[in-house]
Amino acid sequence: MKVSVAALFESALRRYAQGTFASEEQKTSANLKLSNANANSTISSTQGLCVAYSGGLDSTVLLHVAKTFCKNNNIALSAAHVNHGISKHAETWQKHCEEQCAELNIPFATQSLSLKKRPQHSLEADARDARYSILDSLAQPNSIVVLAQHQDDQAETFLLQLKRGAGVKGLAAMPVIMARKSGVQYLRPLLEATRADILLYARRHKLTWIDDESNQDIAYDRNFLRNQVLPLLTQRWPSFSKAVARSTRHCAQENAVNTEYMDLLWDRLVEAGSIDLSQLSTQSPATQSSFIRHWLATEHDLSPASAQLSDILRMAQVVNNLGRKNTSPHIVLGSKAIERYKDKLTVIPLAKQTPLKSDVVTRAGFTKLEWGSEKILTLNESYSLKRAATTSTSNSNVFLLPEKDVEYVFGGSNINFKYQKNRPSKKMKAWYQEWGVSPIQRQQTPVFVSDNRAIAIGLEPIKKSCVDLKHAIYVELCKSPLI
Fold first, then answer.
1. Where along the chain do its domains lie?
2. Nearest-10 Cα torsion for 170, 173, 174, 175
3. Which end of the chain has a smaller Cβ tally under 10 Å, C or N?
4. β pairing state of 472-479 and 108-112
5. Across-strand partners of 48?
6. Would you say 440 and 337 are in contact if contact means Cβ atoms under 8 Å apart?
7. pLDDT tens readout for residues 123-160
């Protein structure tokens, strides 16, 4: 017997989202059950669902199903609409969604975004990322956002990933449930429903929806697959989307197993956030590749392409193929550098070293600190300096600087620094080597200079000069600019 769209929705809530609605005490129970609102209900009225509502066929059916389900189970329901502003009908669609929610007595929120085509960027991908960010902000606290993607959408995503040469993680396509870094959870309860199932439901319940004319534009890869490729595949193999859905589940399972194995290796291979290359070299080439990719994605939100991963692996080799010590310094991925230093592989955020403010540049690479009436000075994209509120603080980032005639420079390898009274003054390059600070990290380190000698080094904790300072003030070095 064919399963209904409503039954698929409820089944997904039972399997994946129940813990979201249960109290902490109820979450420990092994036999939680969804039930109609009564004294024994496991669903908290302070939590709920938020439907990502575009006004199209799929999200209209999702909203209708969710309305009935939430009413029966005493769950709070809201709807969030993202106005992409691309179509000339965008405002009309937003009004339609608002009116539909008002008629159904569902709280409605909307926000507009402005997109511009960027070189070497997919407009579809940019729109997706922006849409998720807006949904994160519009979702009510403790709610779970439900998305209307279905089985045919899953097949499209699988083929797009296949075209890109993705591995099992990419071929797993869209997960049923996912949590974003914002903490908001997303659920796709209709992934087992076909587009035909959803259309049949909409017609039976006499629902009204809007049609986005851009869905017919085959200049977009997804529309090309939807309108020209999948119909041919389905004509030849009627169960094609269902078979693809099964493959995505297999890929998701394989990816989960791989992730579990990578997590087991973590304590052995990662030390203080860096990969120990001597330990990594004991693993097979396939495991090395998988672990580096897992480490970059988990710790640093980086997804290198296959060619980039190959470059990283070559750099990570203790001895290269010619039998010589590998001295490749680093590889840049976006705003971060992956650096090999002392048989460790480390990721270092990169920031533009040009000051963000119009400060006085006294000489090449050096900038003069001009406090004036300012209490906060922006050094670059990564650091700000502010006057400390008190002289008695346990904050390790607080230190003394002369109030006047102070410069800062990033790196400053040739600047002299007297770190300890019983030790001689040495060039910063020598101190960096002694402290084990890598070449890329040095370039990101602010050095505060007075009378051509270093006063403080912006590492963690701050390295402070042992020289007595006159007319000094307490300052605090803060990560990220304070605007």
1. 5-248, 272-349, 360-479
2. -70
3. N
4. unpaired
5. 76
6. yes
7. 667 777 888 889 988 887 777 899 999 999 999 999 99
